Protein backbone atom coordinates (compact mmCIF):
# COMPACT_ATOMS: atom_id res chain seq x y z
CA UNK A 1 0.00 0.00 0.00
CA UNK A 2 1.32 3.43 -0.96
CA UNK A 3 1.57 5.63 2.11
CA UNK A 4 3.56 8.50 0.58
CA UNK A 5 3.86 9.98 -2.90
CA UNK A 6 7.17 11.81 -3.16
CA UNK A 7 7.50 14.43 -5.91
CA UNK A 8 11.15 15.39 -6.43
CA UNK A 9 12.83 18.09 -8.47
CA UNK A 10 16.44 16.95 -9.09
CA UNK A 11 17.44 20.50 -10.00
CA UNK A 12 16.69 21.96 -6.57
CA UNK A 13 19.88 23.03 -4.83
CA UNK A 14 19.71 20.55 -1.97
CA UNK A 15 18.80 17.67 -4.24
CA UNK A 16 22.03 17.92 -6.21
CA UNK A 17 23.78 16.32 -3.24
CA UNK A 18 20.92 14.54 -1.43
CA UNK A 19 18.90 12.93 -4.22
CA UNK A 20 21.03 9.73 -4.42
CA UNK A 21 20.36 9.17 -0.69
CA UNK A 22 16.66 9.85 -1.19
CA UNK A 23 16.49 7.42 -4.11
CA UNK A 24 18.21 4.76 -2.00
CA UNK A 25 15.82 5.38 0.89
CA UNK A 26 12.79 5.02 -1.40
CA UNK A 27 14.19 1.84 -2.92
CA UNK A 28 14.15 0.27 0.56
CA UNK A 29 10.61 1.49 1.34
CA UNK A 30 8.07 0.21 -1.21
CA UNK A 31 5.32 2.17 0.55
CA UNK A 32 6.84 5.31 -1.01
CA UNK A 33 5.94 6.14 -4.62
CA UNK A 34 8.73 8.35 -5.97
CA UNK A 35 8.18 10.56 -9.05
CA UNK A 36 10.89 12.87 -10.39
CA UNK A 37 10.35 15.86 -12.67
CA UNK A 38 13.01 17.73 -14.61
CA UNK A 39 10.86 20.79 -15.34
CA UNK A 40 7.88 22.42 -13.66
CA UNK A 41 5.88 21.83 -16.85
CA UNK A 42 5.90 18.11 -15.95
CA UNK A 43 4.21 18.61 -12.58
CA UNK A 44 0.67 18.33 -14.00
CA UNK A 45 1.48 14.91 -15.47
CA UNK A 46 3.15 13.90 -12.23
CA UNK A 47 0.05 14.77 -10.21
CA UNK A 48 -2.19 12.82 -12.59
CA UNK A 49 -0.07 9.73 -11.97
CA UNK A 50 0.11 10.36 -8.22
CA UNK A 51 -3.69 10.70 -8.02
CA UNK A 52 -4.01 7.15 -9.35
CA UNK A 53 -1.93 5.65 -6.51
CA UNK A 54 -4.05 7.52 -3.93
CA UNK A 55 -1.37 8.33 -1.30
CA UNK A 56 -2.10 9.32 2.28
CA UNK A 57 0.46 12.14 2.07
CA UNK A 58 1.96 14.08 -0.84
CA UNK A 59 5.57 15.06 -0.13
CA UNK A 60 7.28 17.79 -2.16
CA UNK A 61 11.05 17.48 -2.40
CA UNK A 62 12.31 20.74 -3.86
CA UNK A 63 12.82 24.41 -3.20
CA UNK A 64 10.13 27.03 -2.65
CA UNK A 65 9.74 27.45 -6.42
CA UNK A 66 8.95 23.75 -6.81
CA UNK A 67 6.46 23.99 -3.96
CA UNK A 68 4.82 27.03 -5.59
CA UNK A 69 4.46 25.25 -8.94
CA UNK A 70 3.08 22.11 -7.28
CA UNK A 71 0.58 24.02 -5.15
CA UNK A 72 -0.59 25.91 -8.26
CA UNK A 73 -1.10 22.67 -10.19
CA UNK A 74 -2.69 20.94 -7.19
CA UNK A 75 -5.09 23.82 -6.56
CA UNK A 76 -6.31 24.00 -10.16
CA UNK A 77 -6.18 20.33 -11.18
CA UNK A 78 -9.18 18.81 -9.41
CA UNK A 79 -7.48 15.43 -9.89
CA UNK A 80 -8.09 14.12 -6.40
CA UNK A 81 -11.61 13.05 -5.50
CA UNK A 82 -12.93 15.11 -2.63
CA UNK A 83 -9.90 16.96 -1.28
CA UNK A 84 -6.21 16.45 -2.11
CA UNK A 85 -3.99 14.56 0.33
CA UNK A 86 -2.20 16.59 2.99
CA UNK A 87 1.07 18.07 1.77
CA UNK A 88 4.46 17.78 3.47
CA UNK A 89 7.57 19.69 2.36
CA UNK A 90 11.17 18.52 2.68
CA UNK A 91 13.96 21.09 3.33
CA UNK A 92 15.68 20.79 -0.05
CA UNK A 93 16.07 24.36 -1.34
CA UNK A 94 18.12 27.45 -0.52
CA UNK A 95 15.54 29.29 1.56
CA UNK A 96 13.04 26.60 2.67
CA UNK A 97 10.62 29.12 4.19
CA UNK A 98 7.63 26.83 3.65
CA UNK A 99 9.43 23.74 4.97
CA UNK A 100 10.56 25.65 8.07
CA UNK A 101 7.03 26.89 8.74
CA UNK A 102 5.84 23.27 8.70
CA UNK A 103 8.56 22.09 11.08
CA UNK A 104 10.96 20.54 8.55
CA UNK A 105 14.62 21.52 8.82
CA UNK A 106 18.05 19.93 8.59
CA UNK A 107 18.47 16.55 6.91
CA UNK A 108 15.77 15.84 4.27
CA UNK A 109 16.11 12.08 4.90
CA UNK A 110 15.28 12.61 8.57
CA UNK A 111 12.27 14.68 7.53
CA UNK A 112 11.17 11.97 5.09
CA UNK A 113 11.49 9.33 7.81
CA UNK A 114 9.30 11.48 10.04
CA UNK A 115 6.65 11.85 7.32
CA UNK A 116 6.65 8.09 6.77
CA UNK A 117 6.22 7.51 10.50
CA UNK A 118 3.27 9.89 10.58
CA UNK A 119 1.69 8.37 7.44
CA UNK A 120 1.76 4.88 8.96
CA UNK A 121 -0.52 5.88 11.85
CA UNK A 122 -3.33 8.32 12.63
CA UNK A 123 -2.35 11.60 11.01
CA UNK A 124 -5.13 13.95 12.12
CA UNK A 125 -3.09 15.31 15.03
CA UNK A 126 -0.34 16.33 12.59
CA UNK A 127 -2.57 18.16 10.09
CA UNK A 128 -2.60 21.96 9.91
CA UNK A 129 -4.45 24.06 7.37
CA UNK A 130 -3.12 27.02 5.45
CA UNK A 131 -5.02 29.27 3.14
CA UNK A 132 -2.86 30.15 0.16
CA UNK A 133 -2.12 33.31 -1.82
CA UNK A 134 -3.74 33.46 -5.26
CA UNK A 135 -1.86 35.95 -7.47
CA UNK A 136 -3.32 37.51 -10.60
CA UNK A 137 -2.74 40.70 -12.60
CA UNK A 138 -5.58 43.06 -13.39
CA UNK A 139 -5.89 46.22 -15.47
CA UNK A 140 -6.63 49.15 -13.18
CA UNK A 141 -10.35 49.90 -13.17
CA UNK A 142 -11.24 46.63 -14.91
CA UNK A 143 -11.93 43.05 -13.89
CA UNK A 144 -9.98 41.17 -16.55
CA UNK A 145 -7.22 38.91 -15.29
CA UNK A 146 -3.78 38.97 -16.89
CA UNK A 147 -2.61 35.79 -15.20
CA UNK A 148 -5.01 32.90 -15.62
CA UNK A 149 -5.19 30.64 -13.80
CA UNK A 150 -3.92 32.31 -10.66
CA UNK A 151 -0.44 31.46 -9.41
CA UNK A 152 -0.64 29.91 -5.95
CA UNK A 153 1.88 30.27 -3.12
CA UNK A 154 2.45 31.03 0.57
CA UNK A 155 5.12 33.75 0.74
CA UNK A 156 5.44 36.89 -1.40
CA UNK A 157 8.19 39.48 -1.32
CA UNK A 158 7.99 42.82 -3.10
CA UNK A 159 9.55 46.29 -3.27
CA UNK A 160 13.08 46.28 -1.80
CA UNK A 161 12.75 42.67 -0.67
CA UNK A 162 12.11 41.53 -4.25
CA UNK A 163 15.15 43.48 -5.46
CA UNK A 164 17.22 41.93 -2.66
CA UNK A 165 16.08 38.40 -3.52
CA UNK A 166 16.87 38.94 -7.21
CA UNK A 167 20.27 40.41 -6.31
CA UNK A 168 21.09 37.39 -4.14
CA UNK A 169 19.89 34.97 -6.83
CA UNK A 170 21.62 36.65 -9.79
CA UNK A 171 24.78 38.14 -8.22
CA UNK A 172 25.64 36.15 -5.08
CA UNK A 173 24.44 32.56 -5.56
CA UNK A 174 26.49 32.14 -8.80
CA UNK A 175 29.63 32.62 -6.67
CA UNK A 176 29.05 29.14 -5.26
CA UNK A 177 29.29 30.21 -1.62
CA UNK A 178 27.53 28.46 1.28
CA UNK A 179 23.97 29.65 1.83
CA UNK A 180 24.71 31.36 5.15
CA UNK A 181 27.59 33.33 3.61
CA UNK A 182 25.54 34.26 0.55
CA UNK A 183 22.76 35.59 2.74
CA UNK A 184 25.24 37.46 4.98
CA UNK A 185 26.85 39.16 1.96
CA UNK A 186 23.42 40.09 0.61
CA UNK A 187 22.43 41.61 3.96
CA UNK A 188 25.66 43.64 4.05
CA UNK A 189 25.06 44.93 0.53
CA UNK A 190 21.52 45.97 1.45
CA UNK A 191 22.71 47.81 4.55
CA UNK A 192 25.45 49.63 2.60
CA UNK A 193 22.91 50.69 0.00
CA UNK A 194 20.48 51.90 2.67
CA UNK A 195 22.99 53.65 4.94
CA UNK A 196 25.07 55.34 2.26
CA UNK A 197 22.42 55.78 -0.41
CA UNK A 198 24.91 54.40 -2.94
CA UNK A 199 23.79 53.21 -6.37
CA UNK A 200 26.12 50.79 -8.11
CA UNK A 201 25.93 47.73 -10.36
CA UNK A 202 27.31 45.53 -7.57
CA UNK A 203 24.56 46.59 -5.13
CA UNK A 204 20.81 45.79 -5.12
CA UNK A 205 18.61 48.13 -7.14
CA UNK A 206 16.66 50.69 -5.16
CA UNK A 207 12.91 49.94 -5.11
CA UNK A 208 10.49 52.10 -7.05
CA UNK A 209 7.44 53.63 -5.30
CA UNK A 210 4.37 51.39 -5.06
CA UNK A 211 0.80 51.75 -3.88
CA UNK A 212 -0.44 48.97 -1.62
CA UNK A 213 -4.19 48.69 -0.99
CA UNK A 214 -5.52 46.49 1.78
CA UNK A 215 -9.15 46.17 0.75
CA UNK A 216 -11.52 47.76 3.27
CA UNK A 217 -8.56 48.95 5.37
CA UNK A 218 -7.05 51.78 3.36
CA UNK A 219 -4.08 52.46 1.10
CA UNK A 220 -0.35 53.04 1.59
CA UNK A 221 1.97 54.66 -0.94
CA UNK A 222 5.74 55.06 -0.91
CA UNK A 223 9.09 53.29 -1.26
CA UNK A 224 9.63 50.28 0.98
CA UNK A 225 12.68 48.23 1.87
CA UNK A 226 10.42 45.28 2.72
CA UNK A 227 7.04 44.26 1.37
CA UNK A 228 5.85 40.89 2.64
CA UNK A 229 2.55 39.10 2.16
CA UNK A 230 2.25 35.61 3.57
CA UNK A 231 -0.05 32.96 5.02
CA UNK A 232 2.84 31.31 6.88
CA UNK A 233 2.72 31.35 10.67
CA UNK A 234 6.43 32.15 10.98
CA UNK A 235 7.39 35.51 9.49
CA UNK A 236 10.72 37.05 8.64
CA UNK A 237 12.74 39.15 11.10
CA UNK A 238 12.34 36.62 13.91
CA UNK A 239 8.64 37.22 14.48
CA UNK A 240 5.68 34.86 14.37
CA UNK A 241 1.93 34.97 14.74
CA UNK A 242 0.86 34.37 18.35
CA UNK A 243 -1.36 31.35 19.09
CA UNK A 244 -4.36 33.53 19.91
CA UNK A 245 -4.23 35.44 16.64
CA UNK A 246 -7.01 35.29 14.05
CA UNK A 247 -6.95 32.28 11.67
CA UNK A 248 -3.72 31.87 9.69
CA UNK A 249 -5.54 31.98 6.39
CA UNK A 250 -5.88 35.77 6.29
CA UNK A 251 -3.25 37.46 4.15
CA UNK A 252 -0.67 39.01 6.44
CA UNK A 253 0.96 42.21 5.15
CA UNK A 254 4.13 43.88 6.42
CA UNK A 255 5.72 47.00 4.94
CA UNK A 256 8.94 48.66 6.14
CA UNK A 257 9.76 52.18 4.93
CA UNK A 258 12.81 52.63 2.71
CA UNK A 259 15.21 53.98 5.31
CA UNK A 260 17.81 52.26 7.52
CA UNK A 261 16.27 53.33 10.83
CA UNK A 262 12.87 51.84 10.06
CA UNK A 263 14.57 48.61 9.03
CA UNK A 264 16.65 48.56 12.23
CA UNK A 265 13.55 49.17 14.34
CA UNK A 266 11.81 46.31 12.55
CA UNK A 267 14.78 44.00 13.17
CA UNK A 268 14.89 44.88 16.88
CA UNK A 269 11.13 44.44 17.26
CA UNK A 270 11.40 41.07 15.51
CA UNK A 271 14.23 39.93 17.79
CA UNK A 272 12.04 40.60 20.84
CA UNK A 273 8.90 39.12 19.29
CA UNK A 274 7.13 42.48 19.25
CA UNK A 275 6.73 42.88 15.50
CA UNK A 276 3.04 43.08 14.69
CA UNK A 277 1.92 43.31 18.31
CA UNK A 278 3.21 46.85 19.03
CA UNK A 279 3.40 50.00 16.92
CA UNK A 280 6.83 50.53 15.35
CA UNK A 281 7.58 53.77 13.51
CA UNK A 282 8.10 53.12 9.80
CA UNK A 283 6.62 49.60 9.99
CA UNK A 284 3.11 48.90 8.73
CA UNK A 285 1.33 45.63 9.52
CA UNK A 286 -2.13 44.51 8.45
CA UNK A 287 -4.33 41.52 7.62
CA UNK A 288 -6.99 41.02 4.98
CA UNK A 289 -8.40 38.78 2.28
CA UNK A 290 -7.41 40.92 -0.74
CA UNK A 291 -4.34 43.10 -1.37
CA UNK A 292 -3.48 45.12 -4.47
CA UNK A 293 0.02 46.28 -5.42
CA UNK A 294 0.48 48.90 -8.15
CA UNK A 295 3.42 50.88 -9.50
CA UNK A 296 5.35 51.71 -12.65
CA UNK A 297 7.37 48.51 -12.22
CA UNK A 298 5.52 46.22 -9.82
CA UNK A 299 7.72 43.15 -9.34
CA UNK A 300 7.04 40.50 -6.71
CA UNK A 301 8.48 37.08 -5.98
CA UNK A 302 5.98 34.40 -4.96
CA UNK A 303 7.77 31.41 -3.41
CA UNK A 304 10.83 31.94 -5.58
CA UNK A 305 9.05 32.78 -8.85
CA UNK A 306 9.13 36.31 -10.31
CA UNK A 307 5.90 38.02 -11.40
CA UNK A 308 5.70 41.51 -12.90
CA UNK A 309 2.95 43.93 -13.78
CA UNK A 310 3.64 47.04 -15.85
CA UNK A 311 2.16 50.51 -15.61
CA UNK A 312 -1.62 50.47 -15.60
CA UNK A 313 -1.79 46.99 -14.07
CA UNK A 314 -2.10 45.87 -10.48
CA UNK A 315 -0.87 42.67 -8.88
CA UNK A 316 -3.87 41.29 -7.01
CA UNK A 317 -3.53 38.88 -4.10
CA UNK A 318 -6.51 36.97 -2.73
CA UNK A 319 -6.73 34.24 -0.14
CA UNK A 320 -7.89 30.76 -1.17
CA UNK A 321 -9.77 27.99 0.53
CA UNK A 322 -7.60 26.14 3.09
CA UNK A 323 -5.37 23.24 2.06
CA UNK A 324 -4.21 20.54 4.52
CA UNK A 325 -0.48 20.26 5.33
CA UNK A 326 1.52 17.89 7.51
CA UNK A 327 3.42 19.54 10.33
CA UNK A 328 6.47 17.51 11.30
CA UNK A 329 7.38 19.25 14.55
CA UNK A 330 5.40 18.67 17.73
Characterise the protein shown here.
The chain has helices spanning about 15-25, 45-55, 65-75, 95-100, 110-120, 160-170, 180-195, 260-270; strands at about 5-10, 30-35, 55-60, 85-90, 125-130, 135-140, 150-155, 155-160, 210-215, 220, 225-230, 250-255, 285-290, 290-295, 295-300, 305-310, 315-320, 325. The chain is of the alpha+beta class and about 325 residues long. It folds into 2 domains: about 5-120, Rossmann fold (3-Layer(aba) Sandwich); about 135-320, Tumour Suppressor Smad4 (Sandwich). Strand 1, helix 1 and strand 2 (about 30-35) form a beta-alpha-beta unit. Helix 6 (about 160-170) packs across helix 7 (about 180-195). The radius of gyration is 20 Å and the shape is globular. The protein starts with a strand and ends with a strand.
Low-confidence stretches: 142-147, 242-249
| The CATH class of the largest domain | Mainly Beta
Rg computed from alpha carbons, rounded to a whole number of angstroms: 20 Å
Largest sheet, in brief, is: 6 strands, antiparallel
State the helicity in percent bands: 25-40%
Total beta-strand segments: 18
In DSSP terms (H or I, runs of 4 or more residues), the helix count works out at 8
Oligomer type: single chain
Q: SSE string, helix = H, strand = E?
A: EHEHEHEHHEEEEHHEEEEHEEEEEE
What sort of overall outline do the alpha carbons produce when their principal axes are compared?
globular
Measured by DSSP, the beta-strand proportion falls in 25-35%
Q: Strand order of the main beta sheet, please? A: 7-6-17-14-9-10
First and last CA, distance = 26 Å
What fold name stands as the CATH topology of the largest domain? Tumour Suppressor Smad4
- What's the structural domain tally? 2
**CATH architecture classification of the largest domain:** Sandwich
The SS-based structural class is alpha+beta
Amino acid sequence: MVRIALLSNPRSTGNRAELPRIRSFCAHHPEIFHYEVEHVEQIDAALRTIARVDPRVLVINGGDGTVQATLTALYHSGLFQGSPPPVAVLPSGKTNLIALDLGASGDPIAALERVLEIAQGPIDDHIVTRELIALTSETEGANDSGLSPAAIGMFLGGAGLAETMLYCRNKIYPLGLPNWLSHALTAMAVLVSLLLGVRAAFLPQRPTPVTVSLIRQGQLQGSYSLLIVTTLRKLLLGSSIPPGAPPAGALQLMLVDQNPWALMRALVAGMFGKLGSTLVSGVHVGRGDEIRIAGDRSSVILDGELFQAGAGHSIVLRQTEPLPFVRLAA
